[in-house]
């Protein structure tokens, strides 16, 4: 059963400018494993973090570091939630996450489904 869905879109050039303007943004938003990725991948992951929060009902106090986007063995993106995000997901009965990332024409988009 679908418990929540979330979608977000990010302008890659604008996101890159924000990273350049605010150097510590990378550390505040991305996990250590995510930080070395190219800007288009970071933009897609940022969109995914926002989409995860939306799938959880956009609760206050959930930080960007509490959702990490990884590449699975097959290259398929996977999301891991920790902290308050994991607590909320558990409370909602989320058992599985589905995530799709894309970037083209200067934008990155992420779509997330929380399944129970």
Automatic annotation (TrEMBL):
Residues 4-94 form the 4'-phosphopantetheinyl transferase domain. InterPro entries: 4-PPantetheinyl_Trfase_dom, 4-PPantetheinyl_Trfase_dom_sf, ACPS, Ppantetheine-prot_Trfase_dom. One of its GO terms (biological process) is fatty acid biosynthetic process. Coiled coil: none annotated. Its EC number is 2.7.8.7. It is an enzyme of class 2 (transferase). The keyword Repeat does not apply. Pfam families: ACPS. Gene3D superfamilies: 4'-phosphopantetheinyl transferase domain. It is found in: Cytoplasm. It catalyses: apo-[ACP] + CoA = holo-[ACP] + adenosine 3',5'-bisphosphate + H(+). GO terms for molecular function: holo-[acyl-carrier-protein] synthase activity; magnesium ion binding. Keywords: Cytoplasm, Fatty acid biosynthesis, Fatty acid metabolism, Lipid biosynthesis, Lipid metabolism, Magnesium, Metal-binding, Transferase. Its cofactor is Mg(2+). The keyword Lipid metabolism applies. GO terms for cellular component: cytoplasm. Mg(2+) binds at residues 8, 50. Belongs to the P-Pant transferase superfamily. AcpS family. Transfers the 4'-phosphopantetheine moiety from coenzyme A to a Ser of acyl-carrier-protein. This is Holo-[acyl-carrier-protein] synthase. The lineage of its organism: Bacteria, Bacillati, Actinomycetota, Actinomycetes, Streptosporangiales.
């Amino acid at each position: 059963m679908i418990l929540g869905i979330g979608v977000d879109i990010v302008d890659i050039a604008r996101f890159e400018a924000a990273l350049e303007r605010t150097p510590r943004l990378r550390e505040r938003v991305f996990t250590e494993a995510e930080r070395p990725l190219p800007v288009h991948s970071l933009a897609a992951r940022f969109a995914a973090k926002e989409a995860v929060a939306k799938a959880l009902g956009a609760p206050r106090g959930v930080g960007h570091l509490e959702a990490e986007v990884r590449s699975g063995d097959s290259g398929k993106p996977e999301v891991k939630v920790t902290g308050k995000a994991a607590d909320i997901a558990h409370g909602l009965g989320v058992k599985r996450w589905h995530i799709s990332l894309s970037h083209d024409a200067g934008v990155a988009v992420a779509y997330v489904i929380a399944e129970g």
